[in-house]
Amino acid sequence: MQKAYFKLSSFYWFYFSALGAFIPYWGLYLKSLNFSASEIGELIAIIMATKIIAPNLWGWLSDRSGKRLSLIRIGALMSCLFFSGIFLNNHYWWIFLILLSYSFFWNAILPLFEALTLTYLGNDHHQYSYIRVWGSIGFVVTVFVLGLFFSRFSIEYLPWFNLLLLFGIFISTVFVREKPIVHHEHHSRLRDLIKSSEVIVLLLACLLVQMSHGPYYAFFSIFASEHQYSNTTIGLLWSLGVIAEVVIFLLMPRLILRFGLKKLLLFSLISGSLRWLVIAFFIDYPWIITINQLFHASTFGIYHIVVISLIHHYFKGKNQGMGQALYSSVSFGIGGALGSLISGYLWNSMGPELTYVFASIISLIAFMLSLMFIKYYPT
User: Fold this and answer.
1) CATH code linked to domain 2-176+189-373
2) Distance CA 264, CA 362 (A)
3) How do residues 114-167 score in pLDDT, each as one tens digit?
4) How many CB atoms lie within 10 A of CB 204?
């Protein structure tokens, strides 16, 4: 398992390093091409929107064919090939098509790899955070290094970093071995699981959580830049948030055993509501924003580990790949796309402050739904 640990962790390192090159700086890159806030929101939304279809399609192919790792490798390679087209043209519709095609493959591979990792872990699935933490470390390193780089050089070099890291994802998959899917004798049919009120509420809450993150992922760097934060400072703020996430990942196995999944989920949702309000009204106070970034430990770190555990609890055996795909498509896909799209329009019409207030309300709704309808699970 030690060799597998290194190989699995390397995938997460490269995948989330690529995310670290994308999330904090892609909005700034698009702004450098003179796109409006609504156009930036649309271009980021299309990446999220492919998660609605791609993970479900690839999850279905994986569960039916049993060729999970082969599909992961194909997706990683094709994402590299399609993204390389970004260097040919800077027109809006060309970039739209490039992001649509590359993200269709890129967004498919993580849910499949999550299912593969959990298969490797077996009954030790609470150890998942020890592997996933390397993705967060890769994110931090990438954000910090690129923040320093872009403080001295033009952000026009960003796509080259993206392409290099996408290729790293593909290379990391070459060294991983397939792990046969464990088939349980007794498991619910997928259609019955989807009809379960508790699964529906969980997925709806996940959708709302990612929707509330829309203004943060699409516009936090732009918002901070407009309030005189340097690229280096912006990179440090993003890094600080993910460092807090790294710490919480290391603590999560003990926290789950002590508090249970539902309490941790509720804490993450209410802290998200408060976090967006702080950004809305205290952006001019760097020390407050710095402290506020620590809440990324709960709004993403705790939330993600808890939801992955719950999805693993509900979707077993041959439904495992589709369970992770469904979570990805509903939350990061529909929720992420709506969040980016709506925040882009609200940014133009109502301003940044009210956009973040909107995000806060959305997170609060997710908290109320989870409080009322999701059962208590100790582990």
Assistant:
1) 1.20.1250.20
2) 18
3) 888 877 777 666 677 788 889 988 988 998 899 889 888 899 999 999 999 999
4) 18
